[in-house]
Amino acid sequence: MSLIDALDSVTAPSETSFTAEEILARARAVAPRLRERAEDVENNRQLPADVVALLRGTGVFRMARPKAWGGPDLDAVQQTEVIEALAQGDASAAWCAMIGMDTPIYAGFLGEDVAGRLLADPDTVTAGAIMPMGRAERVPGGYRVTGQWHFGSGITHSTWVVGGVLVTRGGELEPGPPGAQGNWRVIVAPVEDFEIQDTWYTTGLAGSGSRDYRTENLFVPEEYTFSFAAPRVTGAAATPDAVLRNMPGVPLGTARAAIDHVRRLATTRIDRTTGTPWPENYRVQIAVAQAEMDLSAARYAVYGSLREQWEILEAGDVPTRDEQVATVLARVNAFRTARSVVASLFDVVATSAVYRPSVLDRALRDLNTMCQHVIAQDQVIQSAGAHLLGGAPHNAYSVGVVL
């Protein structure tokens, strides 16, 4: 289906509305059902249709939809709570929900007519990678786009796809701001305009269906492209890093589920060496308390920094470098702490944890895969330090700077 066909087939928005409280309650209610389907999700290597339907029913894909468009307009704290609740059921489903709900955020960087087409279905899903892995040759009315992108999480059930590109003119890169690779833009096009490649054979997050996708010489109208440096809207959702804020919900929820699993397990376990029930076992007591302590500290850092930053941005103020970096470091720490917590619990449970299906085995593999995401890498910590000290960040976007 071409872009024009896609626009002609847009349906009217649903009249069903959700509040922030209803979306969170639905996410919590659906988590046990996701947990039951976790093995099927993993083996399927993408979300089955009924699991996608479960997510749509929670309202998660519309939670950033602005009130002006009839949406619930959840703030970053509320969004993260929803993703965290879903991750307590299944990490892959939560990851796809976290990615797929970005449609209204992208719409805030596009013209109002195009935004209306993206938001015609309040539960539409957008997938794709925003980093510039493609090239967009400037032509009259738009661009001819060629590229291959990795990590298209949720692309198997998406309607729209984004892709980061560097703009060329006559085959040569257009210059960008000082220090940038070039002129970075993001394209938006229907999923049918891309070839989806079955590349997602991974250690963890297998059910996210994060496949490669490619296109060659695709015409994309100018109005279906945007720069994170030029939002149409104002407020907290208009910042370049708006799509990153709720990401910590996935590792936090995954680790929470792992701790709860071990605490339930402890009620029936006895230490083979000493004959001591686990609730009375010093080693188990220390491990569980340490896990709770570490996860709690990471969680409060995430939610505290998000709340402070959101209030500043909604007031029309500009966060200080310290205020901006606080959310960045809390985000990285959430991923790394969650992995550490689950690894420690995996050791406590010992050999029985290695047999599939195992809650701890899957959680550890999912978190290992999450921590390979660029947003949890050392370059982000370096960028935060550079931003604080006035140096050059290696990943400027991760600290909310567009080059």
TrEMBL record:
- PANTHER family, alphabetized: MEDIUM-CHAIN SPECIFIC ACYL-COA DEHYDROGENASE, MITOCHONDRIAL-RELATED, NRGC PROTEIN
Organism per entry: Streptomyces salinarius
Organism domain of life: Bacteria
Its family remark reads: Belongs to the HpaH/HsaA monooxygenase family.
Please give the coiled-coil regions recorded for this protein.
none
- What UniProt keywords apply to this chain's record, in alphabetical order? Oxidoreductase
Chain ranges of the Acyl-CoA dehydrogenase C-terminal domain? 251-377
Give all residue intervals belonging to the Acyl-CoA dehydrogenase/oxidase N-terminal domain.
Answer: 23-99
Q: What is this protein called?
A: Acyl-CoA dehydrogenase family protein
Q: Which InterPro entries match?
A: Acyl-CoA_dehydrogenase, Acyl-CoA_DH_C, Acyl-CoA_Oxase/DH_mid-dom_sf, AcylCo_DH-like_C, AcylCoA_DH/ox_N, AcylCoA_DH/ox_N_sf, AcylCoA_DH/oxidase_NM_dom_sf
